[in-house]
# Entry
Amino acid sequence: MILYGASGHSKVVLDILMENGIEVDMVIDDHPKVDAIFGVAVQKKSSIDFFQDAIITIGDNKIRKNIAEQAPFNYITALHPTASISKFVKIGKGTVVMAKVAINPAADIGNHCIINTGAIVEHDCVIGDFVHLSPNCSLAGNVTVSEGAHVGIGASIIQGVTIGKWAIVGAGAVIINDVPDYATAVGNPGKIIKINNNER
# Structure
């Protein structure tokens, strides 16, 4: 079992795995700045067994996607024991769910997502691959958050809204209308302040 990425995010994921009794053999990083995290050795990426269990522990959604496309590990999930997750929820490979998260029935969480501390994902939400839901954000029922989008800390999204691909919802924003692909929305009520047309 390895973690790919020796950032602050890796500390949280490593802690979750330790809480679940899962032993991590090493953390790999392209440019390591530390020798160990919580007693687990950090090594520069070299020859890797792509058949071993792994989680990409990098917070940047685009970098996480690039690594997932290039490194075919056996990706597993990490679920904090204090998270409240309905048995009727689907969670994709490589996704991490942190402490005090609530995910309610019929939610569908994609691959390589970060569902951060205290986030609320209500019934029938659909979360695409490589999404980051920041701490204490709240998604009402039937919200769709598309691939690569980032919902900022403390943001609220009302029921039935769609957040587009690679969009950004600012910290504390209150979103009452759909947010287009590649757009950035901030404020209460949320307003589009830019669209990054050069995004993939």
